[in-house]
Design a protein that fits this description.
- By secondary structure, the protein is mainly β.
- It has one domain.
- It contains no helices and two strands.
- A two-stranded antiparallel sheet has the order 1-2.
- The two termini are 25 Å apart.
- The relative contact order is 0.17.
- Keywords: Cell wall biogenesis/degradation, Dipeptidase, Hydrolase, Metal-binding, Metalloprotease, Protease, Zinc.
Length: 40
């Protein structure tokens, strides 16, 4: 992950965040598709 510009969170070793996050104060809400093949 660090090789691809992510940095490890200090509190939880399994969480990472983008080092140069362009949208630090913005949240996104996306619908999740049940069938991955339908979005190809």
């Amino acid at each position: 992950m660090q090789k691809h510009n992510f940095k490890a969170c200090k509190i939880e070793w399994w969480h990472y965040e983008l080092a140069d996050e362009p949208y630090k104060d913005q949240y996104f809400n996306f619908d999740i598709e049940k069938n991955y093949d339908s979005i190809k």
